[in-house]
Write a structure and sequence with these properties.
Layout lengths: L2 H11 L8 E4 L2 E4 H7 L7 E10 L2 E8 L4 E8 L4 E8 L1 H4 L13 H18 L1
Antiparallel strand pairs: 1-2, 3-4, 4-5, 5-6
């Protein structure tokens, strides 16, 4: 795993936070919290990023898994069956700054907020 994993995630699912916060699947509206419940990933170190609609009856849920420090993508269908899973270490987005964050690197919400601020600033400059 490495830079190729980050590139795959962004190429296939778009930039982080470019998806939605909720999506209709079938006739039910799902929030990111609903998907965390459905996939049984309700731990405090799981931080939601977005939901991407890939096409008819195919979706992706992106989140940060603080346990292994990775951005994770679960690609699933309308039955909430997981079809693919991709992971890339958060350092692939943060680069060398990740290693200088100290305790912030272990505070999941703060780390993801830091990444989002840097990421959105970078996107705005391009």
């Amino acid at each position: 795993m490495g830079k190729k994993d980050k590139e795959l995630i962004e190429r296939k699912y778009g930039p982080l936070w470019s998806g939605a916060e909720m999506v209709t699947i079938g006739e039910k509206l799902f929030t990111m919290r609903d998907l965390k419940r459905a996939f049984d990933i309700l731990a405090d170190d799981i931080v939601e990023i977005d939901i991407v609609v890939l096409g008819e009856n195919r979706f992706a849920f992106r989140y940060f898994d603080g346990d292994d420090r990775r951005i994770t993508v679960l690609e699933f269908n309308e039955n909430l069956s997981i079809l693919e899973e991709h992971r890339a270490h958060i350092a692939e987005w943060l680069g060398e700054v990740y290693h200088s964050l100290g305790i912030k690197a272990f505070l999941c919400e703060e780390l993801v907020n830091f990444l989002r601020e840097r990421y959105e600033k970078k996107e705005g400059e391009e």
